[in-house]
Task: structure prediction
Amino acid sequence: MTTPQSPDPTLRYDAPATDWETQALPIGNGALGAMVFGGVGRERIQFNEKSLWTGGPGSEGHDHGNRARPRPGALAEVRARIDAEGRMSPEAVAALLGQPRRGYGAYQPFGDLWLDLPELPEASGVGGVAGGGTGTAGVSGYRRELDLGEAVARVGYTAGGVGHLREYFASHPGDVVVGRISADRPGRVSFTLRMSCPHPGGRVTVSAGRLTLRGALADNRMRFEAQVQVVACGGTRADGAGHVTVEGADSAVFVLSAGTDYADVHPGYRGDDPRARVTATVDEAAGTSYERLRAAHRADHRELFDRVVLTLGRRAPAAPEDPDPAIEAASVVPVVPTDRLRAAYTGGPSAADRALEALFFAYGRYLLIASSRRGSLPANLQGVWNDSTTPPWSADYHVNINLQMNYWLAEQTGLAETAEPYDRFVASLVAPGRESARRMFGVRGWVVHDETTPFGFTGVHDWPTAFWFPEAAAWLTRRLYEHYLFGGDLSYLREAAYPVMREAAVFWLDTLHVDPRDGTLVASPSYSPEHGDFSAGAAMSQQIVFDVLTNTLEAARTLGDDPAFRAELADALARLDPGVRIGSWGQLQEWKDDWDDPGDTHRHLSHLYALHPGSQVTAGTPEAEAARVSLVARGDGGTGWSKAWKIGFWARLLDGDHAHLTLAGQLRDSTLDNLWDTHPPFQIDGNLGAVAGMAEMLLQSAHGTVHVLPALPAAWPDGSVTGLRARGGVTVDVSWTGGAATRIVLRAGATGPIRVRAAMIAGPHRVRDAAGGTPGTTRAEDVLVVDARAGETYIVTAGESRAVTAGAHRVDGSPAA
Ligand code: FUC
Result:
């Protein structure tokens, strides 16, 4: 049996996975994640639940990273030394302000499902433990794929004249991972299902076709439970010692759910035993037909995924009167396995390369949907997927770039709802973060440093180059304000965003230090991630503080907060060193003093925060030119996430070709066969950050206009994108040909002017509303101001109008027919 050919973007392979990190395929519903290997004689499905963590309460030495006995005067001592000497080594600062990290913990794998398929003896027993049964002898037409539109992983092949098909998905509405094992001949589905667990405390029991894994982590006594119910259609089902066996069925379905007693509530971080919840969830799903589970999952996923479609490809010959020539999909590309597509990728002009880029874009959106849904923790360094009890960087929440980057694409690419876990997580850091601010700094407000956990680790450890970053709290609040800017939800601003922003700003009002050299307000000690010496007023510190004070002041004005507080913010902003300085070799300075080394290629480009994600620096200014000099010096290499950030920087500099060059480098050198980003190792921020960068190439709105195709590379002469979002509540579709927009569709979320900037506006074009009517517009050069009404659609088309619709008009400046 071959699997049905999906018209959706799909990752395809012609062999089972043998390696978790580089080959297995991820499915997820935010809380649950699973990695599908697709073995023939033995299938492995490794699974996770996002809250299963060691560390925190119950764990040895857990103290939120707050020094048990704060050393009074240590912070003042560091400030005084920096005032006197200008700099201090990270080691010297860590010796005074750091502390050994204890009770931090790490994100844990939950378990594995193993399907042994004795129908296929000739293919079983081959392959290592990782993939298990990966041999495909006696099998034809093997296909393994991940359909991004349906959010379904499939494995299909023919063996002994019987077509076999397995489908897996992780349903958000059902809160379960579902698998269906089927064959094209009745009575040919037979398998044994087992569950294993990497934690010594986990025990598996079996009853009535249900495997239950239950235990507690030795480290912190966190309780965990997973249940999987097998439902066979035809044939027989029998419980065995630690397994369930199905024989001679027409098909069979399993549903898996898992949970822990974690709760995101400070200070205990524990809630109910997971048993009742997991049992009820599995009972409910097991009592629902596969078709209904699948339909509910499909509707839920497509509602998010289908909002944005990017096509990079040739234009089909259009009918002369067709106002929106269809773009021929990259279907000109034959169906090549994704690993080969990636291996052959150069970033050159081939249609296959465009297809991979569009697939990578779709995949990043898929990955965010799969790893971040309402009701769970946010996407961590690996989203929700982890197979190791000691994952890299604990698979934690790094907040000196990584967590923030995970969510850059959410607003831009129509996935704002997926950021609910981020928003809730950031709010959950306020209570422990207040304690850290009080104990470590003696100030109001809240703080968090380089990295954190689900247990509110808001203090410090003592790794000299990555322990001190109190700016993280302020940076984390940027997304909250951006959600308001994109969607205009005033009650969200008032209730969810502003209280968290306000306290992050208050921390800085209390913490800023007067630089004795020039009287400006600076962060001190200040450390540009993960780089150089400590000093006062490093560029990133100042830019982030500028950002949080500016955003909080704007929000305070919008909400009419206390005038005295507004005056305090305005006064601090007036005295703040803005952290944007041009240095001796034309670079944007990373530090207040001109210490930058032109030969430095460090992966962090923290001093360009003001360019992206910040908006303090605008393309076309001397500061933007200096940012370009810094970027060129840092080079095009780096870790996966570093390259992803560079795509965004180049896009903000309106240099589409360099943005594309960076994307090409990421796809060539920092992307694995399963299209996961690699630092190395696998880290999801690069996947998600690259999508944000690609979106910035196509649409920007950080500087007061809806800028259409601001950084279109020569490599993308033709294409279309639908559903991108701009600040001000505008949804944008655009089609382009020969490097120029032919049609822009704007859907207004609010009543008021929309300022659209596009090269096409400077030439002949026309504007209509959905009914063919004429909206009020004004134009100056390449900026068109549309007098928009909420809910209305406006269509801007390039070129001379052919059939003039009744009521349509030429806007000012376009040549007469
Ligand atoms: C930051 C980066 C590292 C890595 C880690 C998880 O500290 O500097 O490269 O991505 O996060």
Summary: Residues 121-133, 315-332, 802-817 have pLDDT under 50 and may be disordered. Residues 490-511 form the longest helix (22 residues). The two ends are 59 Å apart (CA to CA). Residues 381, 393, 398, 400, 402, 466, 530, 603-604, 639, 641, 679, 683 surround alpha-L-fucopyranose (CB under 6 Å).
